[in-house]
Write a structure and sequence with these properties.
By secondary structure, the chain is an alpha/beta fold. The protein has 3 domains: about 300 residues, FAD/NAD(P)-binding domain (3-Layer(bba) Sandwich); about 100 residues, Alpha-Beta Complex (Flavocytochrome C3, Chain A, domain 1); about 80 residues, Fumarate reductase/succinate dehydrogenase flavoprotein-like, C-terminal domain (Methane Monooxygenase Hydroxylase, Chain G, domain 1), CATH 1.20.58. Helix 1 links the parallel strand 1 and strand 2. It is globular, with a radius of gyration of 22 Å. The chain starts with a strand and ends in a 16-residue tail after the last strand.
Length: about 525
């Protein structure tokens, strides 16, 4: 028997929960799908904060817009940038009303940080674990709301379209429509049918495609892969942001993030011999945008044959450092590193996807009745490179836009009652899990070696050939197997890796996060301050 809801929200980070709360407050019935628990999301790990113009004495929307366009290498959609920046203060109000406790000064005003690429102090934060504060505050609200039913340990396998009703659907089919999704209940092992008037993808990023990532390992690009298989439009996947400063501690997966706010606070990047190097790459030094800093570190590591560089904050007041960064201090101390006396070993790690499911200003995808918000979406805000701390506020602003649009639209939508149940007749559980785990490791290695911070045509072609074999093997395995989360995640990781690779091959220029040794930066672009 199919389950029916007004809204099916797949993913429970800041985007998914914000949306669920907004529509539930208008008496909508919401299913919130979470493949592990509500606590495990990219949002929870976000340290830095939320960017918004709040101090009008020194800051304004025009400055924030300009900083975003510069960081995005002038590939950002100006309308999306303006929409997010000008609606950011309302987004902050929403979070505060939901219980988020941003740090404040003695006079009650927000205690603002500055991060790379920002011309002013405009980052609201809660110590150095802002994401955890937001996530826990929203979880409390979601758990209390009678209109939201949470399904933890449920995994979305496929979204339901006309394809499942026997119709041939291609990328040129003009009216592809989403009627819900097939969801795996991990406890029972059954794939259940969830029907909805509107479906929302809020599945987060793709960091688990790479071996070294700051993302939780559930970040396997599920929503992007499902939408792509359903013939939806996915764009800008070549723009993978590598955070410049993840804690270098071999064996840790995911890598522990050393927030950009530490560089805003005054930390300096150094080589293993203690020498500074950012002056060789950018006049903004350690506060240059992330793509420039990550490439600079990558270049120095290759030049000196090292596995990491150092982030040095030892010249700052120890008590102030411990107060600003308590979690980083405790984490490093647990590894024998006292950040008030010792430099922190850091290296770049896959961190954020600037592309994803292409959406309009309402968060609606190319598939009717399917919205996408948060990191899995491509709104146009980030362009070629995300400006630090713009992502959490983007999720809140677009959750609001999608909620308002869909609340009007769903009045004309009804349930599709002729959707068949999931058919797994003739399938069995894979006998050897090693087939899945080894293939996942191979994908990670391929992406790390060939589709990382610096790319080339030859590396991309080699990655394509290697991935093609894994794709064929995995699709054959999926067709004869009962769905399981490991197998479905592998399938999604391969789909996402293919999209990153293909769209990287199609971009014949070095722009933003996509840097290739075979295609230079075009001269027509706005003059860059970068030495690259």
């Amino acid at each position: 028997m199919a389950k029916k809801f007004d809204y099916l929200v797949i993913g429970a980070g800041v985007a998914g929960m914000s949306f669920a709360l907004k529509v539930a407050e208008r008496n909508a019935k919401v299913a919130l799908i979470c493949k592990t628990t509500l606590e495990e999301a990219n949002t929870f790990l976000a340290q830095g904060g939320v960017a918004s113009v709040t101090d009008l004495k020194v800051d304004n929307f025009e400055k924030h817009i300009h900083d975003t366009m510069v960081a995005g290498d002038w590939l950002s959609d100006p309308e999306a940038v303006e929409m997010v920046v000008k609606n950011a203060p309302d987004g902050i109000d929403f979070l505060v009303k939901k219980g988020v406790d941003f740090d404040r000064k003695d006079d009650g005003s927000f205690d603002l940080h500055r991060e790379g690429g920002h011309s002013e102090f405009r980052i609201l934060h809660h110590a150095d674990n802002t994401g955890a504060e937001i996530q826990t505050s929203l979880i409390e609200q979601v758990r209390l709301h009678p209109g939201i039913e949470v399904f933890e340990h449920h995994f979305a396998v496929e979204i339901i379209t006309q394809h499942h009703l026997g119709r041939i659907v291609t990328r040129r089919t003009p009216d592809i429509t989403c009627y819900g999704a097939y969801i795996l209940d991990e406890e029972s092992g059954r794939v259940e049918t969830f029907l909805a008037r509107a479906t929302v993808m809020a599945t987060g990023g793709v960091g688990a495609v790479y071996t070294t990532t700051t993302n939780p390992l559930i970040a396997t690009g599920d929503g992007i892969a499902m939408t792509y298989r359903a013939k939806g439009t996915v764009s800008d996947m070549e723009f993978i942001q590598f955070h410049p400063t993840a804690l270098y501690h071999p064996g840790d997966r995911p890598s522990f993030l050393i927030t950009e706010a530490m560089r805003g606070y005054g930390a300096v990047l150094r080589n293993l011999d203690g020498s500074e190097f950012m002056q060789k790459y950018d006049p903004r030094l350690s506060l240059a945008p992330r793509d420039i800093v990550a490439r600079a570190i990558d270049s120095e590591m290759k030049l000196h044959g090292t596995d990491h560089v150092y982030l040095d904050v030892t010249h700052k007041d120890p008590e102030e450092t411990r107060r600003h960064f308590p979690n980083i201090y405790e984490k490093c101390l647990s590894l024998g590193i006292d950040i008030t006396k010792d430099m922190i070993p850091v290296a770049p790690a896959a961190h954020y996807l600037c592309g994803g499911i292409k959406v309009d200003a309402n968060g609606e995808s190319s598939i009717k009745r399917l919205y996408a918000i948060g990191e899995c979406s491509c709104t146009g805000l980030h362009g070629g490179n995300r400006l630090a701390s713009n992502s959490l506020i983007e999720a809140v602003v677009y959750a609001d836009a999608a909620a308002r649009h869909s609340l009007d639209a769903i009045q004309g939508y009804d349930f599709r009652n002729d959707v068949p149940e999931w058919n797994d007749e003739g399938t069995a559980h894979p006998e050897e899990m090693v087939l899945i785990t080894q293939s996942a490791k191979e994908v990670n290695q391929i992406m790390g070696y060939y589709v990382g911070i610096v790319r080339s045509d030859l590396r991309l072609k080699r990655a394509w050939n290697r991935l093609d074999i894994l794709y064929e093997e995995t699709e054959k395995l999926f067709k004869v197997s009962k769905p399981s989360r490991p197998l479905c995640e592998l399938r999604n990781v391969i789909n996402v890796a293919y999209l990153i690779m293909r769209q990287a091959m199609e971009r014949k220029e070095s722009r933003g996060l996509h840097f290739t040794v075979d295609h230079p930066r075009p001269k027509a672009v706005e003059p860059s301050e970068s030495g690259f």
